[in-house]
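Predict structure. Chain length: 53.
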Amino acid sequence: MAMPPRIIADYVLAHDEQVFHLMGNGRIEKAEPTLDAVLRADGSVIYSSVVAG
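Prediction complete.
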């Protein structure tokens, strides 16, 4: 099962790397982290809205 692109981008961004989305027609957008993405001490990313249930 493939991971959704947003989850991958959030993980990379949380580890202080840059992410760019290739949007088509030569357009490139700098990714911003999802607002509720939280980096845990073990290096994983969780989403506070999912944890809050």
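Summary: Strands lie at 20-24, 27-30, 37-39, 45-47.
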